């Protein structure tokens, strides 16, 4: 079973890559379409379209009927990356220069907008009775992703961010699109409303778990790439999950001192890690990841066996890649 | 008849303003929603939702069923303004500071994205059999608006822009959204496919006519506001319709000289106007406006009487306001 699923995932990835390559995007005006093609075809793990395919098929939908929605969620993802990279001033993405660096900010704004329009157009190619609801959920998710991004920025200048605030933020910024991908697969099938909503929650919890895992890796990893990104997180005041736990019991002035201490010790990672270690933050963070992941997986019990197996396999695969 | 239509338009405008005010946009995160509300409720002529209402009703649709689509096109319009203002570096819009000036560029990018998502969500509230096609046309129009913006920017650095290139560009940048507004009204009704497409063409030609009229007013107007915007058009190399006609018969080096001549004479408007006058550009431009307007109005002959009267009235009203 696992072996077959592994082959299937590889086949679907190839199909998605091909689909993204042949989106019937015109060549002109090249100022719009070249950066759109560049972003849409940049290498990626294709988690979101895989979620849409494996959920929908697990619920009995014919593979071909799922394709437009699967491509739509990946193009929507590409849109969020292009605009986020401008806002976060990131220079590299998926091994390539970001659009606003390779071209300029205006080009990145415009081609991001174009990707968003294209994503919606792709979705509307779906043949499904609940297409209106799919469109509604798609745009609602898009709005929540914007909320997540706004909260992430807002948190940078706040000292009172709680673990719950954080979970809400990453649930929107990262989780909702994973949830949407599953939800669309379910809405194309004849599954109940409640199944679609349950799968949305599954995706949100999965996203929360992955994001916390990212935060954890970033602080514990020794690789230069991760290190750089940690430096910029510390400088900008980004509120990661481990940091929120460290700050948790402190007074306002203690919080300020600790953030200052981290900035001063950018080149002395060990001094920072020792504090996290003393407060047992890494264990607490791992426990939270496990808890969220278990909650997410428990939701799969309510699904038909094939959908459960499909999604369990995907979760397994992503978890391994992240470690 | 006209008198009643006048009252109706005023009533609908109030309704649209109220609709925009009560969009059920949450308060938090304020970094996203405050600028969204600010842009969506900024004063405006509400041409696009009026087109949707008057087209749809003229084709027999109940007023209430048109509301979500009418609000959707206005919110989509607000989105384009927020992002265009960043790209064009405009500081004022609809009598207010632009979002990227009042807040910052990141906020303007994000709240523009939010408006785009909201526009789709509103559209998806429409109760219509052809909702899938409406969603497809909506996103296709959005993509064409992006194309128009990309072409407008591209033209700034080009000397070989023809009148046809220009018409294609403004047809996309300005006309397509007017066309879409009519088209959605028709798609909610039980009118034929061909009626919807004909109305789309009507909107495109109308947009082309209005945009050329804008270009003409900008160069002939004496008001300080218009003058400033002409200065920035000349400096950036913007290809307006009258300018394209002036450049039409010239060699490459003559074109360069003339653009240089305009830059040098920014404060000597008369010297510039004299050249346009000598070449009879203002008459030729007016003739083109009349021709496009007549083409547009001729398309209304194919509609039921009520739709024709509604749209003729609206065209009349907009033309007068622009003069």
Structure explained in plain terms:
The structure is a homodimer of 323-residue chains. Chain A is an all-alpha fold and 323 residues long. Chain A has helices spanning 2-21, 30-40, 47-58, 63-88, 99-102, 105-123, 131-156, 163-188, 193-220, 224-236, 241-248, 252-264, 269-278, 281-299, 305-322; strands spanning 92-93, 96-97. In chain A, strand 1 (92-93) and strand 2 (96-97) form a beta hairpin. Chain A is globular. The model of chain A has no long low-confidence stretch (mean pLDDT 94). At the A-B interface, helix 4, helix 6 and helix 7 of A face helix 4, helix 6 and helix 7 of B.
Question: Which terms summarize this structure?
Answer:
homodimer, 323 residues, mainly alpha, Farnesyl Diphosphate Synthase, two-stranded antiparallel ribbon, 15 helices, 78% helix
Give a topology summary.
The structure is a homodimer of 323-residue chains.
Chain A: H1 2-21, H2 30-40, H3 47-58, H4 63-88, E1 92-93, E2 96-97, H5 99-102, H6 105-123, H7 131-156, H8 163-188, H9 193-220, H10 224-236, H11 241-248, H12 252-264, H13 269-278, H14 281-299, H15 305-322
Antiparallel strand pairs in A: 1-2
Helix pairs in contact in A: 2-6, 3-4, 3-8, 3-15, 4-6, 4-8, 7-8, 8-9, 9-14, 11-14
């Amino acid at each position: 079973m696992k072996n077959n699923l592994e082959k299937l995932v590889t086949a679907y990835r190839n199909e998605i890559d091909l689909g993204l390559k042949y989106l019937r995007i015109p060549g002109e005006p090249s100022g719009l379409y070249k950066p759109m093609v560049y972003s849409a075809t940049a290498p990626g793990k294709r988690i979101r379209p895989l979620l849409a395919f494996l959920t929908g098929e697990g619920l009995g939908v014919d593979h071909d009927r799922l394709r437009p929605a699967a491509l739509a969620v990946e193009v929507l993802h590409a849109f969020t990356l292009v605009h986020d990279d401008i806002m976060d001033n990131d220079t590299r993405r998926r091994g390539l220069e970001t659009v606003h660096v390779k071209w300029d900010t205006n080009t990145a704004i415009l081609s991001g907008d174009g990707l968003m329009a294209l994503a919606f157009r792709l979705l509307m190619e779906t043949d499904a009775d609940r297409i209106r609801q799919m469109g509604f959920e798609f745009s609602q998710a898009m709005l929540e992703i914007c909320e997540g991004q706004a909260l992430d920025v807002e948190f940078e200048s706040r000292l009172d961010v709680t673990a719950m605030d954080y979970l809400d933020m990453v649930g929107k910024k990262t989780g909702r699109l994973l949830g949407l991908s599953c939800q669309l697969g379910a809405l194309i099938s004849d599954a109940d409303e409640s199944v679609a909503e349950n799968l949305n929650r599954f995706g949100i919890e999965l996203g929360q778990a992955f994001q916390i895992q990212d935060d954890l890796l970033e602080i514990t990893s020794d690789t230069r790439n991760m290190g750089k990104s940690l430096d910029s997180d510390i400088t900008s005041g980004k509120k990661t999950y481990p940091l929120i736990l460290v700050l948790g019991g402190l007074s306002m002035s203690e919080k300020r001192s600790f953030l200052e201490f981290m900035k001063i010790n950018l080149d002395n990672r060990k001094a920072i890690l020792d504090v996290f270690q003393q407060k047992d933050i890494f264990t607490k963070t791992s426990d939270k990841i496990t808890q969220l992941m278990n909650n997410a997986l428990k939701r799969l019990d309510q699904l038909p066996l094939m959908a459960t197996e499909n999604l369990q396999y995907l979760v397994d695969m992503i978890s391994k890649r992240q470690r």
